[in-house]
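Help wanted!
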Amino acid sequence: MNSVHKSAYWFLAPAIILMIIIFGIPIIMALGLSLTDYSLGNPGANFVGLDNYEKIFTRSSYEKMFGATFRYVLVVVPLTVGLGLGAALLINSITRFGDLYKTIYFLPVMATLMAMAIVWQIMLHPSIGEINRFLQSGCEIGWLKNLLTLSFLGFEKMDTWFGRSCEDGMPNWLGDKDYAIWVVCFIGVWQGFGFNMVLYLAGLTSVSRELYMAAEMDGAKSSWERFRLVTWPALGPTTVFVVTISCIKAFQVFDIVEAFWTRGAGPSKTAYVMMYAIFEKGIKQNLIGIGASITIIFLIFVMMITLVQRYLVEKRVHYS
Amino acid sequence: MNFSIGQTIKHAILILGALIVIAPFYTMVSYSFKSQREIETGADTGFFGSQEVIIDEFCVHRGQPEREEVKDTLELYPEKTERDVYNILLDEVKKNCTKKPVFFNYQSAFTFAPLLRYLLNGVIVTVSIFLIQVIVALPAAYALAKLRFWGRDFAFSLVLFCLLIPVHAIALPLYIMLAKVGLTNTYAALIIPWTISVFGIFLMRQFFMTVPDDLIDAGRMDGMSEFSIIWKVMLPTAIPALLAFAIFSVVAHWNDYFWPRVVITGERNLFTPPIGMREYRADSDGTFYGPIMAVSTVIVTPLIVAFMLAQKRFIEGITLSGMK
Amino acid sequence: MSGIFLKKINKSFGNTLVLNNVDLEIYEGEFLTLVGPSGCGKSTLLRILAGLESSDSGEVFIGGADMTKVKPADRNLAMVFQSYALYPHLTVSENMLTPLKLRHLSTLERFPLIGPFISREKRNELTERVRKTAKILKLESFLKRKPGQLSGGQRQRAALGRAMVRNPVGFLMDEPLSNLDAALRVHMRSELSELHKALGSTFVYVTHDQAEALTMSNRLAVMMDGNILQLGKPREIYEKPSDIRVAEFIGSPKINIFSCNVIKSNQVEICGFKIQGNFQHFMDKKISIGIRPEHLSLTNDRNCIKGIIKHRENLGSDFFMHVESPNIEKRIILRVSPEEALNLQVDAKFNFNFSQKYALFFNSAGKRVEVFDPNNITNKKIA
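Answered by r_m:
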């Protein structure tokens, strides 16, 4: 038996060493570098204390960074989770073609995001993009225009978004700072909700059919009541997991921003998300101190999310 | 009787969603068949476009008659002027350069930049990453699941801790480390940060926990070393989990854009497909939409096709990841 | 006029017929068991009664009212499921409260935050009911626990409690004991019987275990292939099975079946031994004779049926001998007392016979037939 014990260390050694090199050292390095003004190629570095962090929390360009990141996370997480759950419930309750919908909704998860972002960019092109062409054609169909401009309710054509767009031309989605970050959010939702749907579908299969029957016998007549009594509590663990990974993924948004704007992260930096900031400051501009500070702040966010998750998981254990 | 109103509404919602989801895929493939003019004017020419022949300007440019050639030809037709001969020769070239848009798009996709090389790089990187991940993760997972030794709980909590940290988040210090040892712009830089998959260790450990101890003891009774137990007993039983993990790993690294963007700065020969896409947009506003859509189609298709073929396994793989 | 009446119930899943024109009347206050092998349609019948499944045709009457199209919640039946189906996120007392809340509180009163505020009195009343039920079931100390923290037997009782608090017209139970270990199962049998006596309400119980069916029920319905083969008191079913399949299903170990050709109108032979009776309707046909293991007895008479012991099964209080006999294909099982078993080791040869009055006769269609004059049953041993 002695040999069994020893070999365990041999089996674990490569993994442990790699964990230290790839996770341990970089985290400590980032912590250290965030307190200096180091840049690659320069011989030395000065200790600057918390200056980098102070800059991040005071300068307006970083305010934009937090704004863009939190806007993205706060829009994309609820929507990907909600749409994922909604799609899963719908697919679970239909009798036919469930697999087909599942396949379609999952396609964006598999597809290379960089390539698809470029496709969206073309579709969102202000003059030749299909989206504006499609909206424009809505302006030319009388009843549809009436419906969308709410003119049947007595609204003037300039009162509604659609009416204004028909008059003044459709928006320049990626060039207008009022739209840019929301378009990025939309792509994020488009890409991500299929993944959550699959996790929810898996969660739903573990809900016992007898539990639904019991609920029905107990007097939960509407499907909403059964959802609240059986489905939602049963999906609790799935939801905690889905929200956590959606958050961590949302914080990492980068590809879409790079694909849409080859430089500058959107009109007047409205899509200046954290990963982009790390990339721009740390690697493009060689301001490694600043880049490392943003890295640390990023890691703190991720840690906080995970702590919340752990707490929730511990709190609600059902069947041990 | 099954045709209830409720079901109909549900299908209506799902179809609407499906249309939005599928729209960019439709556009991508359809544009990859169309000529620049068709795309810009938005003429309704169906999914495959009109396939009206166009003149490939690149081809014409490459084939422009040389001065020597004109002179040689002029000797055969002394009655013509140099200008005339030039034009005749050019017309000849143009005739050879007319083609259907679909051929133009896909041909340009592979000639404008070394797309094949990028695809090959993608394959090299994803396959190496996966193989190394397995070689590192399997023994570790086996030790954590089935062997008793001092420090096991600590090692496992280390795995759980690393599970929280996205590698992309610590890209900057990793980049500095690689730069310090002079490894940027190498395959090694693309692969090294991914050699350890904590997720892989975790997944395989959970799977190994379900393998009965008796199986391992039987192996020991047959005289196998612990090392050969891993590869001869555990590996074969773990095929389903391994396949799920393979899918996860390959999808993530084939599609990864951020990390290659960080470590491959100038070396075009090392571009992976997502990074390679940048090459096609160099002259951004004069972008040829057809070719770039053809490139997108070529890059996206392998995984989509694989997904269609092994859908069950893919979804199983994703599901397994959600079981923590 | 109360009681439950299922009338001409038909049900198929796809091309498989699960219930074939089943009629069943369940009296008020009785403990009726639906028993049969898996796939016989017993669970489906119970679900149709509960309203969880709809029948293709037929009607369900509960308490005299036609409930065929009524939702399960409005039938006022309670159900105990095989997996107990307790809500995992709620404590035992919340689990028991759920059906009460859904029935007795309006949507507004159930609304979070303001609900408890406007319906305090009602809620106290319901909690009191839960407490009383818990007391009966000895669940009081577990009320604050979640299902995951309970043992199998406690979960079982919590599931019963959830059914009981509602004072339903009837209790439906779908194999409620099959997830328990053997000792607990035997214990819960008696608890359920006592509970039934104490509550006096109707129990409809589904099981594949013939022992449960025999021990607990007032009446049992033996189902096979979507039909009720026989409905009757346990003793009746055991002693006078109407069908060879019922005879084989009920009773453990299985009944011994000997088949023989009828060649004389007044007697049949098993291995050369004769049984007198009225066989004139079965001339030139096959007839099967069933004898339960406990009705075969050892004898010193060398003219009786010969056998060789192939396997002894020691149950402590009894021994079951698996016996091979010349000219009989199937092994015969007979029960002997431990004293008798002392002399009977494996490969021992011996003789046995049976009393004619215990022999059950089945015609070629499997239906039981009377061959003796009912007024003249003798205790005489054959041969």
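OP: Thanks! One thing I noticed: Chain C has eleven helices and 21 strands.
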